[in-house]
User: Fold MarR family winged helix-turn-helix transcriptional regulator from Tenggerimyces flavus.
Amino acid sequence: MRDSVDERVERLHRDFPTIDPVVQAIAGRMLLIARELDRRAQAGLDQYGLELWAYKTLMDLRRRGEPYEAKPSELATSLRMSPAAMTKRLDSLERAGYVRRATDPHDRRSIVVTLTDEGRQAFEGSVEAQSSAEEELLGTLTPSQRGQLASTLRKLVLALEPD
Assistant:
């Protein structure tokens, strides 16, 4: 069975025969799937008034465990963002009441970002919607196929992460 990526890769390979079509097909499909996961996730988050970027930031704070806090630089690194972009994101989340920034009691030169009760509730309320969006797409795979895909993708992620 052929998909839209097959057609694009074939056209590209005709013009650039030295490019590996298998690599192009994998990358093209991964990008298409990532965009679709984001689109579906956002549709599920809309009912909670959350943008995907806000959900990801709240999730990062929540997964750290109580007291659900981190330095802005830690969040920026974890979410693979620039410090300036993180500052802008935190400004918006603070205005919404989802996070609070305060001076670090252990180092007055630093700032600590804490997930507020309102932010925790917004995140926790939207987890099911987010999960449902992912499961809907991945539901086309058998459990065995999901396991194989997860294992294969793990190898790629490990290649990206520092030792």
